[in-house]
Protein 1
Amino acid sequence: MAALSTHPLAQTFRNYAEQAGWNPQQSGEAFGPEDIDAENSFIPPVDIFSTEKQFVLHVALPGAKKEDVGVNWDEEKGMLNLAGVVYRQGDEEFLKTLSQSERKVGVFERTIKLPPGNGEKEEVDGDNITAKLENGVLIVSVPKVEKEWTEVKKVDVE
């Protein structure tokens, strides 16, 4: 979670926390990795599909909004970083009535190596990665670089 404090969505999280009444100056706290604990964070489950032309990731994020989710590709490391926050819906008064909690809510971060560690040497086209949030599932499509066919020529032996 150390990368979260520098993540582009970190300021959004800070703004939301301040709107919710949390003032880091008054409390002497800062919004950074040290503020994230197991109770308020989670690692979302992911399915990775490897088709002929792309990797497709399905990340379970029920209740997430697209403006609260970020996807970043680190080409040097071959790492896809998914980070954001999932809120429990309802106003403060309603949330006080929660009697059983089973859903994962809070800050999340997941870093995934592509291609997955299965020995494949496929390259990823980082410029054409797409992501959409559909029915509580973040769908990330990561195109593979098309392999060029090499022409084999017969060489006559003299």
Note: DSSP finds three helices and eight strands in the chain.
Protein 2
Amino acid sequence: MTQANPEVTVKIGGVTRTLPSARAGSMGRVPLVEFIGDSEFTRAVAREMLVMIPEGTEVLLTVVTNALPLAHELSHVSGLPYECVRKKRRPYMQDPIIQDAPSMTLGVAETFWLDSPHAARLKGKQVAIVQDVISSGGTAQTLARIVERSGGTVSGYLAAFRQGESALSLPFKYLEKLPAHI
């Protein structure tokens, strides 16, 4: 008998979480990682990811929403500043960098926005891209393009989890591998 809503259990930094599954387009059900509202798990994951930050990294970069608490905590434990790319234009943005982001995983194209004052903080810096889950690599590739357009250099790609096999050959580091679908 197949479980209606299968789950996956992970243990990182002494903290165990049972991840529910969610339907993700044509991929079927995938494990759902939630950092929002789970500070204990977020702290444990950030502490474990600390050693993955490449030497010489000066800034962390993430994208809203779920990876934001993780990047914030990783910033806290590493002492590195972080910047956050938006998925929606905000009225206060001044001459933002706009980058289309094809979602190879969910099949929905998005547009990413980085306000110019935030982009200026990446200029001339070594930037590590931080994600909650990396699957196709499309989001990481889009964030790398934003770093380059801002005048920075990508120092590395970090994720708490890797899901499935990436079609892209990005050299990312991750803590644990999740099944592509369950």
Note: The mean pLDDT is 91.
Protein 3
Amino acid sequence: MRSDTARWSIPIIAFVLTLPLLTSCAIDKGSALAANFEKDWGGTADVEKVDTNGYNILPFNGTATGVLILADGTPPDRVAERASELREYVAQNNSVTGRITAAGITFTVDADETRTHEIVALWRSLTADERVVEGDIGSSTSKIGYRWKAKVTVVDSADAMVVFDDLVGDGGRYQPLSDVTSVEVATRSDAHPGLRVQSDTNGVLPTEAIAAYEAVAAEYPIAGATLQSTSVRIVVARTADQDDALELARTAAPGLDPAAVSVTGKGGA
């Protein structure tokens, strides 16, 4: 009996001594991935700062997001180089989402080389466009398939409509991404009037909402608006006839639920 106890005590003690080491290395996987990202990319040429977030979903399971914030004035070709290197990194570490911030635009780098080339090309176009203030290009994967979401802030409402058209159209200033893309373009916070126009997650365009907005804008001063594929909210100046503006909007957007077409008033002409 004593020999049996001695025989089992050694592996049990070894397991107990090893458990804290296993736990500290693997239980908070998201945090570990984030720490590794910061260590691997800190001090890289052109990288001014590394931001990370670790997500410890379950014990021994997690993900991380790492953002390389590049120094102001980093040449576009160097940004492309960093993106290529980061693409290789995320391809080898599939639980890590890699992102880059450069010239006011943040974008996600994909493990797929073609997608990364497309995103870098879009980044180049956005940063060269004087109408664009800042932007964010992210991605997600679902049962439906791969999705991009582009959010762009512009100077004023006229810019918002043109930039939106350029992002979703085939003949615009930007080359459309090959995957389904949700696009949201909004004016900066101090713009008057303010405007937000966006497609849905499947890339469906707010065609009727835009028609409603344009119909009202042709007759009355606009204070602000939000245009989506299933709804439109328009704020007109105090001097406008709200009932007439609402009728104009609903007539121009017959495919939208009348309850989803809203026109309200706001002070200022």
Note: The first strand starts at residue 47 and ends at 58.
